[in-house]
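Limitations
The structure tokens in this dataset are predictions for the assembled complex, not deposited experimental models. Users should treat interface geometry with appropriate caution, especially where small molecules or nucleic acid strands are included. An illustrative entry is reproduced here so readers can see what is and is not provided.
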Amino acid sequence: MSAEPVLSVRDLVVEIPTRGGLLRPVDRVSYDIGAGEILGVVGESGAGKSMTGNAVIGLLDRPARITSGEIWLNGERIDQLSMRELRKRRGKQIGMVFQDPLTSLNPLIPIGQQLTETIREHLPVTAAEARQRAIRSLEEVGIPAAAERIDSYPFEFSGGMRQRVVIALALCAEPSLVIADEPTTALDVSVQAQIIALLKRLCRERGTAVMLVTHDMGVIAETADRVAVMYAGRLAELGPVREVLTEPHHPYTSGLMGSTPLASKGQPRLHQIPGSMPRLGALPDGCAFNPRCPKAQDKCRQNPEPRIGPADPRAACWFPLGETA
Amino acid sequence: MSLVSIQNLTRVFDVSKPWLNRVIERLPKRYLTAVSDVSFDIPAKTTYALVGESGSGKSTIGKMVVGLLPPSEGGVTINGIDLAIETDDDKIESVRSDIQMIFQDPYASLNPRWRVRDIIQEPVVARGGKATGLAERLLEQVGLTASDADKFPHEFSGGQRQRICVARALASEPKLIVCDEPTSALDVSVQAQVLNLMSDLKDEFGLTYLFISHDLTVVQHMADRIGVLYLGRLVEEASPDALFDAPQHPYTQMLLEAAPRMDGFGREVEPPKGEIPDPIDPPSGCAFHPRCPMAVAKCSAERPALKTVGESRVACWVAQGDT
Amino acid sequence: MTDLPQSPDTPIAVKKPSRLQEIWASDFLWQFRRSPVAMVSFAVVMLLVLSAVFAPLIAPHDPFNPATLNLMNGFTPPGEANMFTQDTFFLGTDDQGRDVFSTILYGMRISLFVGFAAVLLAMVIGITLGLIAGYVGGWTETIIMRVADVQLTFPAILVAMLIFGIAKGFTPPEYRDQMAIWVLILAIGLSDWVQFARVVRGATLVEKSKEYVQAAKLIGRTPFAIMLRHILPNVLSPVLVIATISLALAIIAEATLSFLGVGAPPTQPSLGTLIRIGQGFLFSGEWWILLFPSITLLALALSVNLLGDWLRDALNPKLR
Ligand SMILES: Nc1ncnc2c1ncn2[C@@H]1O[C@H](COP(=O)(O)OP(=O)(O)OP(=O)(O)O)[C@@H](O)[C@H]1O
Ligand SMILES: Nc1ncnc2c1ncn2[C@@H]1O[C@H](COP(=O)(O)OP(=O)(O)OP(=O)(O)O)[C@@H](O)[C@H]1O
Ligand code: SF4
Ligand SMILES: [Mg+2]
Ligand SMILES: [Mg+2]
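Predicted assembly:
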């Protein structure tokens, strides 16, 4: 990745003021995504995966808000833009795919109209051209007889087909970045395989940068180029997918990989990480993982873990595995 | 002897529109066959797993086994007693207390207004049994603490709630526990904890599990025998080793191929064709034939029966070598 | 089972707060303390309810004791001394020399009693029918809900008047005044159950499909036990909201009926009766006989209603 990254996030902090104090669902997170690259984001429920994605699109629900850090998209700083400016970027420069295809589609409008409206909002084309483009994008995502089905309503499609329509909608204005938040979690294995293959193919063909949020390690392994592992709002590890998954540096990544049934094949019991992820309001001092970490020492309990930056270590850990130091 | 024996189990749902709409729009009645002619046995102290995609009838079978749904045809016998036809109340009672169920959603399966103690002890108290100290003992057994008995469910995380469900299921000292996707709502690291707990308890109490899941890796880890369902029918039944090393049915092969692999870096597979057909109007012959890469003419004409091939049972003309 | 993890609790030991602190710090009270509208309306309601309950202690006069009444005191304006007796009355007196402040306190007792009792009746009927309709389903549900729909097409006050008329027809004339209050309660209660039934049915349908109900069925619990012990506690929070708003409506319904002369008799005047009596004197210049009971009714109904509105928002997790 010598070229300028499409998306560049630096020390992003999202805070939520609550009665119990200030919560930080995203705590100084930094990463880049280059053109044509797929960055996988994994972590337990509540780790802050969706929040990170939503912060980039400017879709944070109040009272959550970005309190510091920078977000750069194609060389332009977007974290301080107004809602109106951001809405313009959404769709044109950033496409979105969410878990539940029904929430991303308006149930009362035919899919064709939703597509043409999005296209015309962002590209200078006539209505007829937009319709042609819409049909073409439906064909691209593998909807059979697209020209006939373009005037159907979302409920007339199955779950898998709907998710294809959502992908068509996200990609129709040819954005340079796609944020896909658990795009296949609600789908069956066979349909999931189809959707993932589709996403991969389209992004490779167009050089789109993709942020793929999921909790399925298998999907990450097969799809992502690099992977970011999140824990309690922080980045635990960030690196090329093969290296992170096969030789994890962070004890949490290692525990996560070990606890999948496949990793313990042939053994009567699964490897397990003791305890559970702490709630945001009750984070321990020092490294957030220290109470569950087999390698934790006093240093981990007293000092916040080192942060991951573009040039910094792969794992946010004082005593990374696989390194003699 | 088998603890559970399932014979030609079938369940049909009436999914017609309301009577008035049918009359006005001249629509016929519509029936959905959720489970069709399923037979298998579960030997005592083993784990039988059912896998299949959404809508394949896994939960419907589970509900019929525990007696929450009556079968349309066929039956379930547990310890030689069929709940649906047995008339002796004592026998029904004894079978009932031998069966428990753990559900998928740890947030919906605990009554939010009840204290954990009352939730755990309900199966015993409802039968007029004495339950002093039972909840505390069970809570410790599932890795929580006795003082948790006074709390309400909302004070626990998803994994902890699922432990409470397990404790409740154990309260009446059952022999069979039907687990309907017990870890699907949990993260992998929490899933590992719950699965380990379930294996430990199985050994300790000599439990028998009917384990329902759509996650092949979980099933491979837990099961002694696996049944694969497609559109309400059992298409293959085998031991985990046989199933994962040499799947016989093209659908099983497709499922295994499509499942994402942790070591499948950059794997490019041709994704499976098509989607599950409408269960109200399933394809003729072998229901899988429109998506099957090996289908022959016979497949769309005649339905293959489940037949023993080697160690497994398969319902496929090609696998049975009968084309 | 040797290496089962310890209870995956938060690693930091927290001192357990006392029960009282827990209640004070609960989300519910926290929201209450942040809402001035809720606090003011709660204060007004409490003030009015308490002064009604303790009316015999607070009221300077007993308006129903003819021995203490002096006809000469009639039509004394508020705060001024009577021409003949030199007595002063805080809110003035009516035509019979009764102290308006005292009649309001006693009138509020009747209004509140009728309101609470009617809502309670409506609640019991509505919850029962709603639970049964939602849980049992089928024909039972169809019948209950169609009856409810039909009743809903008529204005509640009309239904109440109808029931009031029928019930009155059945009471022997000599008991009519005595029974009027109870008939009123019956009429308002029966005209108001539909809302409860609808909401409870809806909530029951949602709860019924949850897995904890399946789990209870599985161990052989009877439908009655499931409805009562499992579902009922989970459908009560919307009921609470409706009950509060219904209370405001019931108080107004009672006042309307009494104002129309079909409610509380003049021997047991409620706020509505007082307003009806006062209305006769408005144009002869004795405005206070009408104004003060009306203000009280308005304050009572409004503050109860505001409290209900706040409760609805506070109990709705989506709006948080
Ligand atoms: N309004 C709020 N008040 C307090 N905490 C909140 C609020 N909204 C979100 N959070 C917290 O923010 C954290 C991050 O949530 P996020 O949705 O990003 O998690 P996630 O990693 O996407 O999880 P999942 O896998 O469940 O989707 C969670 O711990 C959540 O509890
Ligand atoms: N009460 C019902 N009425 C009508 N149809 C039903 C009913 N219950 C289940 N079905 C249908 O029966 C089929 C099998 O459903 P079932 O819930 O057993 O599937 P499943 O394998 O458990 O799927 P999932 O993985 O989604 O839980 C589905 O097509 C479903 O729509
Ligand atoms: S019977 Fe035919 S269609 Fe069915 S799985 Fe076997 S080969 Fe495929
Ligand atoms: Mg999320
Ligand atoms: Mg199911």
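Some entries come with short summary sentences. For this one: Residues 242 and 312 of chain B are 8 Å apart (CA to CA).
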